[in-house]
Fold this sequence. Notes:
- This protein is α/β, with parallel strands linked by helices and 256 residues long.
- 43% of the residues lie in helices and 14% in strands.
- It has ten helices and eight strands.
- The chain has helices spanning 48-59, 73-83, 99-107, 126-134, 147-158, 166-176, 194-204, 209-216, 220-234, 239-249; strands at 13-16, 24-27, 39-44, 64-70, 87-90, 116-121, 139-142, 163-164.
- Helix 6 packs across helix 10.
- It is elongated.
- Mean pLDDT is 78; it is low at 3-23, 28-33 and 179-185.
Amino acid sequence: MVSGTAPVAAPGTVTAAVSAAASATVVGAEPPGAGPARIRTLIADDQEAVRRSVRRILEAQPDITVVGEAADGVAALELAGQLRPDVALVDIRMPRMDGLELTRRLAGPGAVTPVRVVVLTTFDLDEYVYPALQHGASGFLLKRSGPALLAEAVRAAASGESLISPSVTVRLLKHVTAPRRPESRRAPVVPLTEREVEIAGHVAAGRTNADIAAELFISPGTVKTHVASIQRKLGVQNRVGIAVHAWEMGYAVPTA
Length: 256
């Protein structure tokens, strides 16, 4: 489960009577002139302990603020309409409306006021991953992913990109791609360096920057720089795009 220990200033909250059967909390907006705009985030999870933990992690970030919490999908949908958050963190299994349907209504083609959704769940089953992405989710994280990845997923979603838990990425790509024959492979217009090919292979194996840095005996910052260069050369927006390319080209590093 996602957890964090960073101290949080206790913001004023009011209970919103969103529905008689579900609870939702609206967090007070920041006062004018409080500094650069933060990423406004809504948390939807039926477990209060999870909501509290996620909120603690996010509120510790200088660029993210939690504007509301909901204990079920219906409450979350109504709060999203009221608060217009930038990103919604959505659990899969919730009463009254599950996370998949909520994702479709918030981020799908017919969304009245689109909200970028990051699915946050204990379950990485295929029956959840594919529908969530098809319904417009901007990310799919396991609750055990950790604070750093959670914050990065919110930032990625807010900037129009996506972040998927490494273990989920590997399983997803094995379903949708396969190494191509040499004659059918498409090399990038600007070739990757040997080091970039190596790093792209590790990305395709679902490894984080820290994992890759330890494996290659370089700093995480150097890995991050290489990843950014690979994205530019391939014309992709995120690590999933890098991984797809590596799998198609046949240089994904085998997983243990």
